[in-house]
Amino acid sequence: MSNRSFLGDTISDYVRALSEPPDEVQTALITATIAATGGSASMQIGSDQGAFMSILTAVLQPRFAVEVGTFTGYSALAVARALPTDGRLLCCDVSEEWTSIARVHWELAGVADRIELVIAPAIETLSNLPDDPPIDLAFIDADKVAYVDYHEAILPRLSDRGVILVDNTLWSGTVADPAVTEESAVALRAFNDHVLADPRSEVALLSIGDGVTIIRRR
User: Fold this and answer.
1) Which domains does the chain have, with CATH numbers?
2) DSSP sequence for 142-162
3) Confidence class for position 12, pLDDT limits 50, 70, 90
4) What is the rounded CA–CA span in Å between residue 85 and residue 87?
5) Is the pLDDT of residue 81 over 80?
6) Distance CA 112, CA 89 (A)
């Protein structure tokens, strides 16, 4: 995968080298993503972020997890592998083409039976979720202008121990520069301000990958 980190190549390479490396299936997925999507491969999370998400999933032991934006499935694979035996992951995406790569590698990894993939606008899928079971873990990594909407659909459905992870919240560092007016940077800046000001939750913005915000209800 290409480097998306605001930290620069040297630190990014060091971070990846000192994190759990991708295994055979993950490596195959990385290769398949680059071959199939070209420049869009940078949309996939890095292996260090995948390792972080697997560890967090193993600690939280979520019975119901939700992903908004699946792409070719690396993040879903990281979560699904660490789910408890009764855990399941709902993936929301709009691309049959890209998620077909995900399905192949979920099967190879032996986690396909833990994952439900819904091809539809994510906000519709989230709005139609029942109140039970509550969401124990959510990962948002889709169109940036809709981040606030996704967050608002998920937060009320979180369990008492539930956590939301939100990707790309540093956007190569441009969120810290108000002179940058590119649409996604503006949307992410607004999202970061929105969740920080929200009295319902606690927030920490982590310098992992391209920025990962972790949120839990108070």
Assistant:
1) 9-217 (3.40.50.150)
2) S-GGGHHHHHHHHGGGEEEEE
3) confident
4) 6
5) yes
6) 10
